[in-house]
Design a protein that fits this description.
Layout lengths: L5 H7 L1 H8 L1 H9 L1 H14 L2 H10 L4 H12 L1 H13 L3
Amino acid sequence: MPKQDPMEALKRDPKAAALLGDQAALASLLRSKEAQTLAQLFQKVGGDQLRQAAQAAAGGDGAALGAIVDKVRANPEGARAMEAMDRKAGG
């Protein structure tokens, strides 16, 4: 199975493509309190493995990053932040 380019997958999703095309909205979303909360939780949960998981995901293997996302989502604070980000992104 060929590896999927994550950016191409995002571009095929209408909501993600719209957000990627609106640099001001994307920058605002990334500066939000929820994004900061998620960044802290990802670092706390993923630790040293986060960078390797992100690199593997960029190469088409999202399993390790998916496991970290699941751990963050299982945290009540992480779940709230993800839901808020989704709403802000138009989800």
